[in-house]
Amino acid sequence: MPVEIAVAIGTIAGIVLMYRYLDTPKEWIDTLNKGTTNSAIAILNTAAVVGFAGVARITDGFDIVIDRLKGVDMNPLWFVAITSAIAAGIAGSASGGLSAAYAALYDTYAALPIPMEYVHRISAISAGVMDTLPHQGALITLLYLTKLTHKEAYYEVAITQILIPFIVLALVAIPLASLGL
Fold it and tell me: Which residues contact 38 (CB under 8 A, 6 or more apart)?
């Protein structure tokens, strides 16, 4: 489904579900304005970080890191996990890091003796482990919306966005992929 249609359906569903909670036109306008403002901030933060990833991708430093990573000899599943995590860490964004990693390492990933579905699953999880740096767009949006500082929220963020995904990657996703599941 095209993303524009999915967003339109989600918006309409949200309005239908909120119908019984908002009585006056002013409540509707205030709620829709607040939602629009919050979504604009999230979109701008994400766009900025993905743009940053695009710029990072074309730097000499990124190419040097990727070239060195290509020479590392290790289990193919861990290779995918580590290279995509490092790309996401450099980019400060899972989506931006994945696009940079896929652009730079597609041929390397395709030559690995594992199905591309595994490459996708492992890289998506591992990119999420290392993208949670202080300048990540989603983190900035979260802190803005919750009115918290990095110092106040980062411990919980680190547990939920770094530690737990790493445990799932290391103890569930990679072992299952190793078994062909």
Answer: 145
